[in-house]
Amino acid sequence: MTNTHRCWVYGDNVNTDVIFPGKYTYTLKTPEEIASKALEDLDPTFATQVKAGDVIVAGRNWGMGSSREQGVTSLKYAGVNCIIAESFSGLYFRNCINQGVLPIVCTGLHLTLHTGDSIELDIANHTIISGGNHYSFSPLSPSVQKIFDAGGLLPMLQKQFAAAK
């Protein structure tokens, strides 16, 4: 089964300080406050126009820079549950998994799309459909898929702890 998603398209080397400005790290507390600053310095329209289910499509090295989880949580709180990039910073990729945001590595997709375009995402068959073109992506490893299926690392650990009682 495929789901259609609206895209927000960005280029290469987008760092975590652009995804969530560091100046807000210790001042904003609620999910709503954090979401309101997502991509503020890169795309001032993002936070006011993003809708639940929208996806980020980006180039190489998405999420480079600091390891602050707000780079992921700001997008999650804004309604983004999937980020597709040509490549991710290793720390950012892991923060996506830990926060329950699906990171998909897909080469070349960002070059064919514009913000506002739609894609079809078929997670079960590891396929993205855009303009009649099919893009394949690798599945998550079983251990990482288990974390993602639980909604992130903390929810998985909470479930394991509760089951062990």
Walk me through what this model shows.
By secondary structure, the protein is α/β, with parallel strands linked by helices. It has one domain: Aconitase, domain 4 (Alpha-Beta Barrel), CATH 3.20.19. Helices cover 32% and strands 19% of the residues. The protein is built from seven helices and seven strands. The protein has a seven-stranded mixed sheet with strand order 4-3-2-1-5-6-7. α4 links the parallel β2 and β3. The longest helix is centred in the last third of the chain and has 12 residues, at 153-164. The relative contact order is 0.17. The mean pLDDT is 93.
Overall tally of structural domains: 1
Proportion of strand residues: 15-25%
Number of helices: 7
Roughly how many Å is the radius of gyration?
A: 15 Å
Determine the N-to-C terminus distance.
37 Å
Physical arrangement of strands within the biggest beta sheet: 4-3-2-1-5-6-7
Global shape: globular
What is the helix fraction of residues, given as a range?
A: 25-40%
Question: What is the fold's blueprint, element by element?
Answer:
Blueprint: E1 3-9, H1 16-19, H2 31-35, H3 46-49, E2 55-58, H4 70-78, E3 82-85, H5 90-99, E4 102-105, E5 118-122, E6 127-130, E7 133-136, H6 142-149, H7 153-164
Parallel strand pairs: 1-2, 2-3, 3-4
Antiparallel strand pairs: 1-5, 5-6, 6-7
Question: Which descriptors apply to this entry?
Answer:
165 residues, seven-stranded mixed β-sheet, 7 strands, 7 helices, Aconitase, domain 4, alpha/beta
Give a nutshell description of this structure.
By secondary structure, the chain is α/β, with parallel strands linked by helices. The chain has helices spanning 16-19, 31-35, 46-49, 70-78, 90-99, 142-149, 153-164; strands spanning 3-9, 55-58, 82-85, 102-105, 118-122, 127-130, 133-136. Strand 3, helix 5 (90-99) and strand 4 (102-105) form a beta-alpha-beta unit.
